[in-house]
Design brief:
By secondary structure, the chain is of the alpha/beta class. Helix content is about 35%, strand content about 20%. Helix 1 links the parallel strand 1 (about 5-10) and strand 2 (about 40-45). Helix 1 crosses helix 4 (about 135-155). The structure holds flavin mononucleotide.
């Protein structure tokens, strides 16, 4: 099975740490059974020059919003825009096969709202969410979801 491709952005390092944890878990699973795919990941920042993606990928999206309450008033995405612009670039959105959100539940209705917005905008399923740096359980759970979806899109 081809490695799972992930693109993500990380302003304060939480998402980066989770991707590292997830990749390490994928390596363990791959060592047990080669049918379990490894993970390759790419971090997007304001400095990234968009490339044309040629393979399916998952987007990992932390949430940074200002203004609004997530229900009936407007909010504005900040910090993570480079990731959205990367996915919007060329035909990249066609290759986005799922979105995973992260955030902090203290933000209530705005929890993981950017990932939910991307899922709609790029017509990709919202697959999972986790808080902050995630836990080992999150990594196990999310790896299983990605692997199943990856099998579907590579079938
Ligand atoms: C200024 C600011 C705004 C945030 N807004 C939200 C929000 O609206 N909803 C949410 O779920 N989390 C929000 N968070 C929490 C972040 O999404 C969370 O800390 C995430 O793990 C950051 O990922 P990163 O360290 O990879 O950048 C916010 C954090 C900061 C610092």
């Amino acid at each position: 099975m081809a490695p799972i491709n992930i693109i993500y952005t990380s302003i304060e390092g939480n998402t980066r740490a989770f991707i590292k944890r997830l990749s390490a878990y994928a390596e363990q699973q791959h060592a047990l059974n080669e049918d379990n795919p490894l993970i390759t990941s790419k971090e997007i920042s304001d400095q990234t020059i968009p490339e044309d993606e040629k393979e399916p990928f998952f987007a990992f999206v932390p949430t940074y919003l200002t203004g609004g309450n997530g229900i009936d008033s407007g909010f504005t995405e900040i910090m993570t825009n480079a990731l959205g612009e990367y996915i919007e670039s060329g035909d990249n959105a066609k290759y986005c096969v799922g979105v995973v959100g992260s955030g902090n539940r203290n933000f209530n209705e705005q929890y993981c709202l950017t990932a939910r917005k991307y899922a709609k905008q790029f017509n990709a399923p919202f697959l999972a969410d986790y808080e902050l740096r995630g836990t080992s359980r999150d990594a196990e759970h999310i790896y299983a979801i990605l692997r199943d979806r990856w099998n579907e899109v590579h079938a």
